[in-house]
Amino acid sequence: MGVQISDERQLKALTGLSQAHVNHLLPVFSEVYTERQQQKYAEGVAAGSRTRKPGGGAKGKLPTMFDKLLFVLYYYKTYPTFDVLATQFALVRSKAHENLHKLSPVLHQTLVRCEMMPPREFKTPDELKSALKGADRLIIDATERAYRRSQDEAKQREHYSGKKKSIH
Predict the structure, then answer these.
(1) Rounded to whole angstroms, how far apart are CA atoms 30 and 67?
(2) Would you tell me how many other CB atoms lie within 10 Å of the CB of residue 18?
(3) I want to staple 29 with a disulfide (CB 3.0 to 4.6 A). Which of 40, 56, 89, 110 is the partner?
(4) CA dihedral in degrees (125, 131, 134, 139; nearest 10)?
(5) Element (H or E) spanning 131, and its range?
(6) Angular region, 17: left φ>0, alpha ψ -120 to 50, beta rest
(7) What sign for the dihedral angle of Cα 45, 50, 51, 55?
(8) Residue 86 to residues 64, 99, 106, 148: CA-CA distances in angstroms?
(9) 24: number of CA atoms within 13 Å, CB side?
(10) Roughly what angle, to the nearest 10 degrees, separates helices 8-15 and 19-47?
């Protein structure tokens, strides 16, 4: 059963994406998911632990690729608890957790392939500059975190920021 989408407005409210964007992501998501399943199957065959061919066994409560994509997009748009997520998609809580952790890397890889995922790390300043082409302003949001001090004096000096006391 799961979440029933009646119109584009509801789809956008539940996932943050229009039907056109979902239609763009769906084939890539499906491709990434299939590649991961084939890789898992090949590893199972190589290890000798695989008993079924791909596609065998129970179908689960998220039978279609659209259901799987909707499930993970819904989670990241609304951030419900696993109890709520399970109820919305007619799952048990443990399966909601399991499905989310299985489908999240698929969504991430999909967004990377579609070039919709911003780069998170840069090895050189030139890489950062090329990623910022066309941007006229850069805003950095950073929070200083408390650091557990080592008892070794040399290591303490290495991490000393110059502050006299911490703010609580």
Answers:
(1) 11
(2) 13
(3) 110
(4) -70
(5) helix 125-131
(6) beta
(7) negative
(8) 17, 10, 20, 38
(9) 10
(10) 50
The helices-and-strands tally (H runs, E runs) of the chain is: 7, 0
State both tokens at 125: 């300043």
pLDDT in tens, 29-62: 999 999 999 998 888 888 888 777 777 778 888 9
- Count CB atoms within 10 A of the CB of residue 10: 12
Structure tokens at 122: 């840069």
> Could you tell me the two tokens for 139?
């805003």
pTM of the model: 0.73
- Tokens 């499905």 belong to which residue? 99
Residue carrying structure tokens 């790390």: 121
